Amino acid sequence: MKFFKNIIDRFAGKPVDWDELEEALIRSDIGVPMTLRIVKQLQERDTRSRITANDISEVAQEEIGRVLPINPPRIRPLPAHPKVILIVGVNGTGKTTSTAKLAHFFKTRRHTVLLAAADTFRAAAIEQLGIWAERVAWR
Fold first, then answer.
1. DSSP state of 122
2. How many CB atoms lie within 10 A of CB 88?
């Protein structure tokens, strides 16, 4: 994943600056509680040996994995009712691409899909979602 590669690139070959790491994790939008959890685990490890960039990536993956369900619940259609899935997040995190992937997933299972853009901030967002909608419709 790009997030973990960026972390490794940023901290490779130098001692960990805890404030810099904390800031980098928070700016990566994983949230303050998860950031504090990752930093705490790394600091506990740091007492035993020097922390490397790979350690940061490894601990981040482990901690994030602990809070995500191993078997997430299946998204099931509601008989005779539309199901709404709202995708939210900060700019540049893959919302549009993920939305297209979800649309494709449901289309391949013979569901009717409607994509609606609500991004009033980024001018090309609506057009980008429209392009993805056309691609998904013809697959």
1. S
2. 7
CA distance 52 to 135: 42
- Cα separation, 37 vs 27, in Å, equals 15
Domains of the chain, earliest start first: 2-67 (1.20.120), 74-139 (no CATH)
Distance in angstroms between the alpha carbons of the first and the last residue of the chain: 27
Q: Which amino acid makes up residue 138? A: W
Angle between helix 2-11 and helix 53-67 axes, rounded to 10 deg: 150
| 3-state SS class at 108 | coil
Q: Averaged in consecutive runs of 10 residues, what is the pLDDT profile of the chain (139 residues)?
A: 78 88 86 92 82 89 88 81 85 81 87 81 78 76
Q: 134: part of which helix (H) or strand (E)?
A: helix 125-137
